[in-house]
Amino acid sequence: MGRYVLRRTGQALVALVGVSIVVFALMHLVPGDPVLAALGTRYDPALYEALVQRAGLDQPVLVQYFDWAGRALRGDLGVSFRTGEPVTTRLGARLPATATLTLGALLVGLVIALPAGIISAVRQGKTADYVANTFAQIGVSVPDFWYGILLILVFAQTLGWLPVGGYRPILEDPAAGLQRLVLPSLTAGVVTGAILTRFVRSSMLEALNAEHVRLARAKGLPWRYVLRHHVLRNAWIPIITVTGLQMGTLLGGIVVVEIVFSWPGLGREALDAVFSRDYPVLQGAVLLIAAIFLLINLLVDLAYARLDPRIRV
User: Fold this and answer.
1) Regarding predicted confidence, which is higher, 154 or 1?
2) What contacts 132, CB < 8 A, 6 or more positions away?
3) Which residues, 6 or more positions from 93, have their beta carbon under 8 angstroms from its beta carbon?
């Protein structure tokens, strides 16, 4: 297990270096002067020169990359062209909002997908299977912003049960924080639940049709015992993997939900950086999301290897 951990950690670090190179290269391939674009009407020759020197843009590209990567390793991602704030400060202030929303959406998705997927597989071909499949197809076909608008119309504007949007840290004000978390979590969670339902169903069907399960049923073992000890135990492994991947996808792709509910998260910050061509913030946001995504994948792989020793080979 120790060698597997070292090998997977090394692969994750190599992937992170590759991501950093791609992110840095793409930022420099975009035509135009990013400092000039970021300053806009605030242009001043002295300020322009100061920002160029501070960002190291007067150096050769390779020097710029190694300087940026070296500072990133020390937790310094530069300063924002737009506000002059350290990028790590801006991203650090928005990471809790995105993490809260991601965990809320994942929780909603699992609450929907696990019972729906299991019942659908066990009751294959019956009404419950048809209902679950219909939900999964509708869930992945409709854009998440549509769910957000529908939920706002029903629960915020018509019934007045929940606020339209905004963010409040749960640790500072639990009641207000949870109230504002419900609708965006449901919005992103419905799509996640629909995707996971399909994987849970297919994983359960594969486990149900395994030879040892058919043998256990042929021996007359109780159905509940077979389901709990032979089916669910084997079906969990791919479900854990897909859940981890889906969590990473939520983390980087939840920007639409953040915009609909005025949620000040990483996706919203990255989008603002794109519009204002604030490259240090955009580079930092993409690198941070990629690093968290790789970390989640690494943890999922280690959990996978722990549950199934064959993976370590």
Assistant:
1) 154
2) 116, 117, 119, 120, 197, 201
3) none
